[in-house]
Amino acid sequence: MSPANPSDSTPRSVARSTPYRIIAGLSAAILAWGVYHAIGAWQLNHNPMRAVVVLACVLVFLGFWMTMLAVRQRRLSKGG
Fold first, then answer.
1. How much is the average pLDDT of 10-16?
2. What percent of the chain has pLDDT over 70?
3. Residue 65 CB partners (closer than 8 Å, separation 6+)
4. Residue 58: CB partners within 8 Å, gap ≥ 6?
């Protein structure tokens, strides 16, 4: 007999770790995208500051995003 809700048969640790894997994959992809663009910016005229600015913007974005996810997780865990 199969369970009424297929998600009930999934262990909680697996079900809970899936969003974290997706977020980690997205973060890695955004970082790779930033490195790709930083290399392109550097190749334009071999000015390393261009690459630094591009990477800094990507890292600030990822830092802000991770901070917002942490705040959201804290609010959800408090129940409010």
1. 60
2. 79
3. 27
4. 30, 31, 33, 34, 37, 38
3-class DSSP state of 3: coil
Q: Name the band, by pLDDT with cuts 50, 70 and 90, for residue 17.
A: confident
> Could you tell me the pTM of the whole model?
0.74
CB under 8 A, 24+ apart: contacts of 67-70? 69/23
Query: 34: which residues sit within 8 A by CB, 6+ positions away?
Result: 54, 55, 57, 58, 59
Tokens of 65: 């995003």
Show me where the domains of the chain are located.
12-78
Q: Where are the alpha helices (DSSP H) in 1-80?
A: 12-45, 48-78
Mean pLDDT, the chain, whole residue set: 87
